[in-house]
Amino acid sequence: MIMARFRSLRWRLTAFYLGLLAVLLLVGGFAQYFAAREVLFRSNAQVLTSEYAAVLTAFRKQNVNRPAVALRALILSNQFSSQLASRHTSAAIFDVNGGRLAQAPATLSSTEDVPTLTTQQYLDAISGAPQPYYIATSSDGSTHLVVLNVIRNGTKALGLAQLSIPTDEIDQTLRADRQLAIIGSLLVLLAALLLSPLIVGRALRPLEQVSATAGALAAGDYKQRVTVPNTNDEIGKLAIAFNQMAAGIDQAFEVRRQSEEEMRHFVADASHELRTPLTSIAGYIDVLGRRQNVDSETLHESLHAMQQESSRMTRLVNDLLTLTRFETGTAPDRQRLDLDRFVNQALDELRLGEQGVVESRDVQPGLAVDADPEALTRVVRNLAQNALKYAPGAAQRWSVFSVNGQAAIRLEDAGPGISRQDLPHIFERFYRGDKARDRSAGGSGLGLAIARSIVEVHHGHIEAQSEPGKGATFTAWLPLATKPNA
Ligand code: ADP
Q: What stretches of 354-454 adopt beta strand conformation (E)?
């Protein structure tokens, strides 16, 4: 549990962020400390150098009447060094070989030596230029800031005047500075630690929301979405992508729900349609079974009626099978069909003229489609039979033409047409128009649904237009074959 907590993104982000901050504070603290130390040493060294210059000028003035040789000797002696020394400052004079000529400790009572550098350092200071300052450790272990000044006579170096002060005051300032930096850094780290849940939590909140929403989606609440933060960053993009995915899932389930709903209706309708002839047959059997003697005429009539019901049922079952075959999208046995020849042949086989229909044809030659001939014949037959049923005796005008890469097979009849309330529904399964409710005249209500599913499985569509009283027009549109028939 605890391990899992430490492995969480929140914890890792916080640890990384605090670690980085600590490293930055440490580096910054060190840099600041050494910079302050350097500044303090240099400014103190400068003070010592100017003190030296002032004392030297005053000393020269005091001894202005002495001959040059005597003045030189005085400068290289205790006389000068004791003037250079003060309460804090100790002074010493060195010759050109680095040998000490005179010294004056800061405290008069002190008997110890002034701090000294290595002979090499003195020699280097005389031959080159002295460094801004030196750090020396005296015999009692205390450190001193040392400044060297070359005593010159014209350009000739006579010796070195050394001024030094103990570094305890500077060290004290630096110690205070160091403590301040440590306390400040700790306070900054503490503030960062206290604020980090707020900052990291704020950054991670959309992620938590995404995971909660994903859980809700998994539990079946497909309407859940995450709030998209109005920053165009990675998390914003994730939220958008997540919502798109959720919408996709929602849509997919909605489609599934609808198709399940449709399927339930379909099963209910089909059962209802099948029950009617079955009830009727059961009725005949019941009546015949109750009678002691059945005369041959009644028997014959009953058997005939039962046969009719059973063939009605067979037709219905066959229609249902056809519909399921095309609605499940099974690829039909497609081949290149010359529409001119195909439609003429299909109509010839229907022998409409023999059923008293005045039929005319206007077929544009040279159009071809890729289609299953058996299925397409079914479309033509269903349309023709509907016109026979619902527009009996009316003229039928068949035409074949093409518009925008689509071939059309159209039937216009001069019958009573379709009422406005029926027109939007006639392609639905089991839908029968008002006039077709009487089952002896109408069919099962599957004819146009079958025609539509056949046309759609060929990537086409079918439409009906009608003005009540002015006949009906059905048009099946199919994509033209891309290459002409070889
Ligand atoms: P049915 O098996 O009842 O014929 P269809 O799906 O073939 O079922 O037709 C659905 C309904 O469309 C019919 O009940 C009828 O009301 C109407 N209809 C179809 N064709 C025509 C037509 N040519 N003229 C008028 N109404 C028609």
A: 359-363, 368-371, 396-403, 406-413
Residues 18 and 49 in one domain: yes
Q: Helix 296-327 and helix 234-290: axis angle, to 10°?
A: 170
* Ligand 1 nearest-atom number relative to CA 446: 6
Q: Are 65 and 143 part of one and the same domain?
A: yes
471 lines ligand 1 (CB under 6 A): no
Q: How far is CA 363 from the centre of its chain?
A: 56
Count up the domains in the chain and report the number: 3
The strand order across the sheet containing 143-153 reads 100-104, 90-95, 156-166, 143-153, 134-137
Looking at the fold, whether 454 and 337 belong to one and the same domain comes out as: yes
Task: Among 390, 428, 435, 450, name the best residue to mutate to test ligand 1's pocket (greatest count of ligand atoms within 8 A of Cβ).
Answer: 390
Check whether residue 422 and residue 444 sit in a common domain: yes
Distance 486 CA to ligand 1 centre (A): 38
Q: Does residue 371's CB lie within 6 angstroms of at least one atom of ligand 1?
A: no
pLDDT-flagged residues of the chain (< 70): 1-7, 106-112, 331, 435-442, 483-486
| Domain membership flag for residue 307 | yes
Residue 85 lies in domain: 7-173
In-domain check, residue 199: no
Q: Which of 273, 308, 328 is the last residue of a domain?
A: 328
Q: Would 129 be classed as within a structural domain?
A: yes
Give the tens place of pLDDT for each residue, 57-81.
999 898 888 888 888 888 888 888 8
In a domain, 183, yes or no: no
Per-residue pLDDT of 387-403, as tens digits, reads 999 999 899 999 999 99
For ligand 1, the distance from its centroid to the CA atom of residue 108, given in whole angstroms, is: 131
Domain shared by 161 and 40, yes or no? yes
| Cα 439 to ligand 1 centre (Å) | 12
Q: What is the pTM of this model?
A: 0.59
Name the CA radius of gyration of the chain, rounded: 56
Q: Whose CA is nearest to atom 4 of ligand 1?
A: 443
Which segments within 30-170 are labelled E, that is strand?
A: 90-95, 100-104, 134-137, 143-153, 156-166
Is residue 448 in contact with ligand 1, taking CB distance under 6 Å?
Answer: yes
